[in-house]
Protein: Adenine DNA glycosylase
Organism: Macrococcus equipercicus
Amino acid sequence: MYKIETFSHNLLDWFHNNKRSMPWRETNDPYKIWLSEVMLQQTQVVTVKGYYNRFIERFPTMTSLVAADEDEVLKYWEGLGYYSRVRNFQAGVREVQEQYGGVVPKDGDAFLSLKGVGPYTRGAVMSIAYNLKYPAVDGNVYRVFSRLDDDATDIAKSTARKHFEAKVMAVMPDAAGDFNEALMELGATVCTPKNPICMLCPVQDHCEAFAEGTVLQRPVKVKKLKRKSYRYKVLLIVNDQGELLIVQRPTSGLLGGMWQFPVVDEEASLADIEELLHMNLYQEAELFHTVTHKFTHLDWLLDVYLYRTTDSATGDYHFIAREEKENYTFPVSMTKIYEHYLKTGS
DNA sequence: CAAACGTGGGA
DNA sequence: TTCCCAAGTTT
């Protein structure tokens, strides 16, 4: 843990002696702070500047925005993205007009309840406009505190926000607004994702990741895996002794080395299958069963078909009796199919 | 709580 | 090309 006083002091001192990223937003007007913070959600400062200036010129006050036509307001957002933001913002401002006499409430809970206002926006507006002590945790703050504490918390998890809010509050000085801005400014200009300039960092002495040499490994952010879905045919092939045909999966890769009933592409025809297995097959039913199985990173959708044969197994395929099933390792998906076969099959 | 929600820029 | 990131919130 770093010494709180020197940490906050060093950061604020640096903030006051450096150029700001947003000189065009030098104001304490809660309406303007609010608007800019909404525009800045998931959007870079350089992108926001022009939109902010045009918007404020056209809708300089809450009164002007409340009276404006929604379609015209939307037009001023065109190209910024995340368009629900502007609809929510106007709704929120109208709410302030009606419920709070046109004054942005100096109460975090009340402000948070407004349309489009989440934990970050609450903290930013309450602290910057009113200097109230609320955390404003954005991507910069995740990164800065992950590094300061060499904290490997996965910032992709939704529970991470409260974790970092607590860290911010633990070192929150009286100058709440400047402090929140300073943290973000530090993250945006010095403690950057790829090429952090640690030599210029005002709180380098407090940074555990710098001391440990793990700066570039922080923050930890587990990638969202794009789950893909795969559909296969599973073949339950029974010989005249009531045995089932199985085959072993390749040693490496998914379910490596485990046994399964033959699996073929969903498009495979009966002729394809007979050629693959070197057997003549007699199909029992159109579709015997369907099983879905979720892995960490992909889904299986298995259509199970039941066949009979009088031929013997060739190659890597084996017929096994029911009592032999326990001698082989099967994935859960295959066991599900087997158990269904025992219940409803012959 | 994962997914959806926009767009632009950099590596 | 593809992926990551950008002063997040909603459902």
